[in-house]
Amino acid sequence: MNDRKAPSFPAHNHDHGACVSGALGRAKRRCLEKGIKWTALREQVFQHVTASHKPISAYDLIESLAKDGKRLAPVSVYRILDVLQAAGIVHRLESRNAFFACMTAHDGNRQTVTFVCGDCGCVTEAEAPEAFRALGEVAKVARFHPLGTIVEIDGTCGECTGRPASC
User: Which end of the chain is less crowded, N or C, counting CB atoms within 10 A of the terminal residue's CB?
Assistant: First the structure.
């Protein structure tokens, strides 16, 4: 049995400030490591993405930023999101064309599965190298050469089903 942690959805009443603080620290370190300039505007966009554990569309992000008095053009927001994705600190939820902050520390080799709760809308991710190895084997047998693999799973988190969040 492996000792990898199960994906963890935060309790609905958790201290989100601690999540944001940890994510912000990791984001700044990751950008420094990758030689990506951490600007005030990138930080502001990142903080809006980390406002909850729910994905946010670029246009909702524009509206959220506008409430703070910063009206950005869509192209500017997408450029910033591209930089934050390249740094591995924001991920795109492909099925919803929305973005969420990386709340866990993992390397750039992102072999993670994204879990999306259909009830509360929260998103979390978990490393799943075995799943990617299995998908690679299936592709090999099929003589198929994938260019990328995205795994998103819709369901209900433990908080919404009444089970402990760590199950």
Answer: N
